[in-house]
Amino acid sequence: MNVDAHHHVWDLSVRDQDWITGPELRPLRRNFTLADLEPQARAAGFDRTVLVQTVTVAEETPEFLALAEESELVAGVVGWTDLTRPDAADELARLREMTGGRYLKGIRHQVQGEPDPEWLLRPDVRRGLAAVAGAGLVYDLVVLPHQLPACVKAAEALPELTFVLDHLGKPPIASGVLEPWASDVRALAALPNTVGKLSGLVTEANWRSWPEGTYPPAELRPYADTVLDAFGPNRLMYGSDWPVSTLATTYSGVGDIAAGLIIELSDDERAEIFGGTATRVYDI
């Protein structure tokens, strides 16, 4: 089973995506639905997907769960809830009891937007993370490179919780700089309760300068090689990051790039990245 472990949908008539600002993101200012995604996913050989939150709005997660209940494509949802609320455990239980609640597999917060680089280490957040673990869910990390040291400390403090590093911590690919990102990712990967998500790389790169049809672009390889060495194939999973990735390439193009980056692996190792890891981690 091939799994796209990271994509989004949104309907601007339901709510604004206030992060879509500026001319570079203008192509994203339209609706992107499961009906748009499904034929592309099927054509690219993906059987199931994981739908991931986009905005810190409580209503979004129940909507995503309802979509999953009706979809033959979506096998899991990574939603959002306010982890700092004292009753976070009760709220997670409530979400699990909703229509489609069985599809709730993880929780995510836009930590990348938090001004405090150690937001994950706050006592109220740690209590919420413990509630995520207690609910049998995983926690997706969407962070910037300077926040990776806090991710390491959080994962050390909560060995019972699986942390999934979305977009590999958004490495500075466009600049070509590896450190300290590489060292921090290795420190995170050294912990057994962490997983990396091979996603979001194309939009961190100089994609406008890529020669047409150049898959995979050479500038991505040092970053992919770093995480392959650090996590290994059985703790890496593929995600398209659709539709954000459409800024750089097509849905199938993202998959082609990822396949090119892992071409030297065995068939079994590639199968782990394109499905096996996500199936286990998200209990698909």
TrEMBL record:
Residues 3-284 form the Amidohydrolase-related domain. InterPro entries: Amidohydro-rel (IPR006680), Metal_Hydrolase (IPR032466), Metallo-dep_Lactonases (IPR052350). It comes from the Bacteria. It holds the Pfam family Amidohydro_2. Belongs to the metallo-dependent hydrolases superfamily. This is Amidohydrolase family protein.
